[in-house]
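User: I'm writing a tutorial on reading structure tokens. Could you give me a worked example: one chain, its sequence, then its tokens, then a sentence or two explaining what the tokens reveal?
Assistant: Sure. Here is the example chain.
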Amino acid sequence: MSHIRCALLAGSALTLVLASSPAMAQQAAPPAAPDREVEQDDDRDVTTLDEVVVTVERREQSLQNYAGTAVALSGDDLAKVGVQDLTDLEGRVPGLSIANNQGNVEVWIRGIGSSNNTELGDPAAATHLDGVYLPRPNGIGSAFFDINRVEVNVGPQGTLRGRNATAGTVNIISWRPGLGVYDAEVEAEIGNYDHRALRGMLNIPIGDQAAIRLAGYGMSHDSYYDNVGPVQGIDVAEAEENYAGRAQFLYEPTERLSLLLAADYVHETGTGYTGTNYAQPLANGISPDDIDDPRRVIARGITPDLDTKHWGVRANLLYDGDAFDVEYTGSYRDLVYDYEATTPFGPSYDGVLDDLAGDRPLDEVLDNFSRFQFITDSESTVHELRFFDNEGPLIWSAGGFYMREDQYSFLASTGDRGLFFQGIEFNVPDMDTQSFAFYGDLTYEVTDRFRYSVGLRYTNDEKERRGVAARYGFAIGGDGFSCCGGVRVGTEGFEFAGRGRTIFNPDTNGDGTISEQEILDFYFNGVAQFGARDNVDDIFAGGPVPGGAENRPDCLDTITGDFFVCPADGKFSFAVPFTGQIFQQIGDMQADFVDWRLRAEYDITDDNLLYGLIATGNKSGGFNDNIGNAGVAPTYDPETVTLYEIGSKNEFWVGDYRARLNASLFYNDYQDQVLTSLLSVAQIVEFLGGPQNIPIPPDTSLALVISYSYNAASSRIYGAQIDGGIDLPYNFGLDFTALFLEAEVVEAEPIQDFRFQADVSPAEAIFRSIDGKRLPRTPELQLNTSLSQAIPMSFGQVDWVVSAGYRSSQYMTIFNGEDFLFPNAPRMRLRDKVEGYWTLDVGAGLTFGPEDQYRFEVYGNNLTEAVNEAAIIITEFDNTRFFTRPRTYGARLRVSF
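And here are its predicted structure tokens:
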């Protein structure tokens, strides 16, 4: 829903470029250096070439013995091919898509995910850091250092992981302190785009029972974009300068008791992510295929400014009892995400400046400071108490979970030079979420070969919100009392008030109505400082200006050549705000749900496993913006996914060489799928049964367009996945994973075509059928493969890896590019199909020196420079595209002590 709200920000849809690159295998490739977990003598996480140990079921087990679909990617292997942060996992695992949407990390698994990054939204795939749930994973990408591995568990995990795990889970696991070991390393890296990175780690033992591990990270690179427009001195998107640190203290006073304390801090800055709006070239008949470089853009306004601070502390206490074990985990996290930007006009192409100017002076067109700002401040607390026994024949786990999140949320824009529209504001100082759950799960070994599992979890969610939403528009009179002209707002030096707002109820005198003066008081209260060339503050310095007033403000025609003309006396004929467009936001909801799972597994031999499972997951429900000032806030129910899966995991010998081949068939029943549309207040009221069911507060503009989410569809997602690998002669290793995926809407209510706005294109912003449409981000065929080799040398080791990935064509909206009005000649601006493409990564390393002290690596990421659309957002005024990371390459040197 964030991009739906952004469509209301003067027609600028804003999301982040998704980083895409080829996949790593499900099993680890030959290591380039000795496994650091072995060095730490911490056998709980030991991995070898032939076995990958994971904790996807909250207990250690071999990945080959796990009766389900999961992936483990080692930190060292990801670094080999230039993975920089969490979002670079995009394209590395079939079925997994990770996007960075203006600093918001979005995770999609097999077509199930969420782009609602507002205070009302929840993810559909749960992200964890060292096993602790993160309700808002913004900024967590830069925590991707000193990482042991990343585990991806595919399919709903409601029983084991709880709320918002309908798609699956991603768990980032850092290296733990090692007892009795002094260890240190430092790594420096350089690359193209002036990429610079520095990483360091220090492990210090404190006696035999305690240790401290410190790790730090710093990275910067220039923008992947290039401002080629006439207005220079403006930097553009995708430049980064990030810093992070982590400290951990491990204390094991006895063999039975363990205490881990940890703290981490991430600070991400740069120019953030705006994407490239193709509306201008498409409107002028320029095909996207004719754009040479989508990142060569015409910049305007200000340099985008991203500032994200994310820190947290956690404690884990583990006691190994006689009858069972007890574990407590507590966490506190604080996130502040602040992003302000103006979006570029669009990509460069032959004739772009002439098209932009039209009949207007080019300087006037380029002098536009329509800007936006997002702020998210989230404080969350997680507590979990778990009792378990991991020794058979009965393996069980039971416990309770509690989470509380307190949010402040701000989203605002200015409409510089705009007619009828001067901006919007969502200012929500109080958005609270509480969730608690109780769960139990057991696996019983009926025989040495046969096991079954059952699990059950009850969850209760509560949400409430207090705030305000406003759409600002001014009626500015010209010659002959014509309406309406524009204003200048948002120019150099402009600042939103944001947290400084003190008026949330515009009816300050309490008489039950909102006067024009109260609207202006509310508007001015939301601005900390007007820009140097703004005139809206001058226009309304004396309050509303009715027609015929003696003291009228000076007239400024903001758009040359349009219908608006200043009166002969050089004064506006009138100036008043539009009414009925400020809504207090007062909403709450409560929902509870039960998740469960059933599973049976049978070992044909020690190396051959058959399994079948049924598992469910729920994504929390929520509520919408209020209908009118403090009116009804319609709610929607949780989404539910039920997974049916059968599979087989096998290891065997091919001659003298060890091989692995796994396969699974799956079917997801996706119920109560939430979709979001742009609807007028009148359409929402009609959709909900009319005014007799939804009372409309006085002074509410029925034409006002707002976002609206509702349980609209049921879908089915099914397919087959195969993965395998073989250790070949001369230390070669070959791994592959292939996914065949079908994902379609089975039954749905007609939904409003959100590519159009009801107040602009009422004939097309109507309800359409999406039955049979393919779900977005679901390529039918997804393939990843890698070939690697480790060559022992007299001085150390040389190793290399080549990793390739393929994605077949996919759609990026639920409408699959259909033009309902012109089906035989669809308009280009509605195209949302991304054609299939290949990507290629390579990496090579040299380990040498006493005890393999030195490690030198080179890498190339996306060598084919397959810059494709990773997301497309289409609204009335936008066709904004976000692209995979361009080709990057570099080298690094690591020294261990």
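What the tokens reveal: Residues 10-49 have pLDDT under 50 and may be disordered. The longest helix spans residues 516-525.
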